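Design a sequence for this backbone.
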């Protein structure tokens, strides 16, 4: 079909050039946003007397009909059109005649695509936020149910000190809660309407940009027309935030993969979120966690691609910016799917509390508390550290946790040990005596859980 912009051209576009230039294959994603923007634009044109009310109503009826026919499959968006804007406008003209040509008054494809992408991204930011909220609700449930579930905490992947599963999950609550805050920040900063910027220098028509922005749910219009058509900061911010979400999911996935291994046996992943092996019948693989971990690089790639695309573009709009869409759409889809599937896996996962507790005991995670016990009995800390190091070495050689050693065994290393050592280094004591803000003690965790509940309510 003839291009809507073909007036000054004397030759038909080369077919390869047309295909290379066309964006209909991916920008049809924001068909509904394009129609929504067109509705607001034509209402504003009529309000300003640029169109008559009759013309406005004809165009609105035409747009409604196109949207309805696309939604029910009666009208197909095909590659016969260069982009989604051309599809809407060409079909509008076919349906209502020359009045449809007035839709584009005071508007350029530059500010039109800037609007569509901004509307679409705003919707996706809100959608990602809801996926994160659902994941946070799941994490909070695990925290509430496991405030007394003792497990080892790790540094350097070495067992370090005893904590609770609630405390461990609380760390991820904080991460994903910050992710939600980033979504709110992005939405607030991006919520300004570029429509009315024209190609780059505005327009001589008396547009009411504030009215258009209000109709579309924006806080106001963008304040510089060149920036309005060439800004993709909001999309870069969103992709950066998605990359951070995926980094958090990947860290969590790595732990699930470890915990699911035969060596840890901390968790049992539900059959619905696992797969088997085609050759090894005993296998039950944590494929969802592995795929989430693997797809993280895919989202990082979209961010780097857009940053690289934008880094050398002079003002204002350039065709390079068409490259803001395909990888960004893929990153949005990938992240939302990963959050959703991870939440499903976590919500159906069984935690092996017995294995976690025994791992903490046999990992000598109460060694620090044993040293503190000696210090409280008057032993200098450096000496206490050395004594407990010898106790741990003895335990490793004899396959005994400290709290399974007899008092006679402990007296080999220091006469200071007394019967009260066993209470001082019990897993419960080690956890519950840590009551500072953010610590795993029961009282501190109860406060943290209430704070998490309040965060979700807000």
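Sequence:
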């Amino acid at each position: 079909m003839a291009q809507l912009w073909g007036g000054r051209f004397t030759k038909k576009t080369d077919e390869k050039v047309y295909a290379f230039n066309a964006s209909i294959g991916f920008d049809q994603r924001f068909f509904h946003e394009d129609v929504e923007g067109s509705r607001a634009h034509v209402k504003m044109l009529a309000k300003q007397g640029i169109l008559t009310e009759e013309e406005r109503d004809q165009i609105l009826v035409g747009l409604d009909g196109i949207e309805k026919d696309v939604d029910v499959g009666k009208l197909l968006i095909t590659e016969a059109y260069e982009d989604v804007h051309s599809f809407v406008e060409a079909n509008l003209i076919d349906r209502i005649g020359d009045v449809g040509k007035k839709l584009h008054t005071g508007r350029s494809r530059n500010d039109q695509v800037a609007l569509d992408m901004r509307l679409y991204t705003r919707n996706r930011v809100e959608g990602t936020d809801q996926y994160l909220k659902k994941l946070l609700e799941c994490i909070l449930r695990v925290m509430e149910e496991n405030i007394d579930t003792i497990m080892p905490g790790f540094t350097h992947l070495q067992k370090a000190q005893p904590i609770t599963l609630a405390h461990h999950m609380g760390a991820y609550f904080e991460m994903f809660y910050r992710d939600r805050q980033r979504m709110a920040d992005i939405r607030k900063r991006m919520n300004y309407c570029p429509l009315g910027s024209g190609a780059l220098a505005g327009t001589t028509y008396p547009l009411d940009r504030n009215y258009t922005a209000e109709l579309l749910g924006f806080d106001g219009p963008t304040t510089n027309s060149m920036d309005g058509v060439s800004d993709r900061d909001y999309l870069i911010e969103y992709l950066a935030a998605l990359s951070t979400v995926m980094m958090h999911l990947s860290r969590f996935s790595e732990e699930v993969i470890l915990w699911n291994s035969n060596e840890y046996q901390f968790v049992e992943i539900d059959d619905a979120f696992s797969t088997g092996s085609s050759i090894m019948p005993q296998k039950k693989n944590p494929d969802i966690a592995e795929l989430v971990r693997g797809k993280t690089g895919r989202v990082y790639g979209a961010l780097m691609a857009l940053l690289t695309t934008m880094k050398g573009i002079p003002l204002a709009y350039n065709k390079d910016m068409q490259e803001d869409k395909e990888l960004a759409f893929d990153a949005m889809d990938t992240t939302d799917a990963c959050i959703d599937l991870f939440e499903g896996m976590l919500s159906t996962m069984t935690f092996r509390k017995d294995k976690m507790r025994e791992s903490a005991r046999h990992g000598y995670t109460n060694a620090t508390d044993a040293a503190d016990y000696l210090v409280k009995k008057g032993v200098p800390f450096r000496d206490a550290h050395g004594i407990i190091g010898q106790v741990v070495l003895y335990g490793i050689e004899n396959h005994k946790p400290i709290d399974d050693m007899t008092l006679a065994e402990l007296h080999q290393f220091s006469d200071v040990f007394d019967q009260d050592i066993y209470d001082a280094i019990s897993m419960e004591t080690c956890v519950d005596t840590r009551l500072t803000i953010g610590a795993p003690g029961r009282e501190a965790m109860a406060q943290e859980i209430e704070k998490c509940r309040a965060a979700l309510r807000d």
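The first strand starts at residue 150 and ends at 155.
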